[in-house]
């Protein structure tokens, strides 16, 4: 079961993109504003703040914000 959870976590992290709405392990809800495939860092916006954090802190993807999605 542990290997399965790790695989699901990796799949979820790979699915992250600009505009993804996420929940972090610290309980912060935000929208991804910048993310690079080859790095473990991303920037999310929550209310009026921008936070730089590791992709591994995301525990759930809640959908996407069409206004933030790449054009």
**Could you give a short account of the major beta sheet?**
5 strands, antiparallel
**Number of β-strand runs:** 5
Describe the global form.
globular
| Helix residue percentage | 10-25%
Taking all residues together, what is the mean pLDDT? 89
End-to-end CA span: 38 Å
Beta content comes to 35-45%
What would you call the structural class? alpha+beta
Radius of gyration: 12 Å
Tally of contiguous helical segments: 1
Question: In sequence order, what are the helices and strands, one letter per element?
Answer: HEEEEE
Strand order of the largest sheet: 4-3-2-1-5
Contiguous low-pLDDT stretches (5 residues minimum) are none
Would you spell out the secondary-structure blueprint of this structure?
Blueprint: H1 2-15, E1 20-24, E2 29-35, E3 41-46, E4 49-54, E5 58-64
What would you say this structure looks like, in words?
This protein is α+β, with helices and mostly antiparallel strands. 20% of the residues lie in helices and 44% in strands. It has one helix and five strands. A five-stranded antiparallel beta sheet has the order 4-3-2-1-5. Strand 3 and strand 4 (49-54) form a beta hairpin. The protein is globular and about 40 Å long. The termini are far apart. The relative contact order is 0.27.
Keywords, separated by commas or semicolons:
71 residues; single chain; 1 helix; 5 strands; 5-stranded antiparallel sheet; alpha+beta
Task: Give a quick rundown of the structure.
Strand 2 and strand 3 form a beta hairpin. Helix content is 20%, strand content 44%. The N and C termini lie far apart (38 Å).
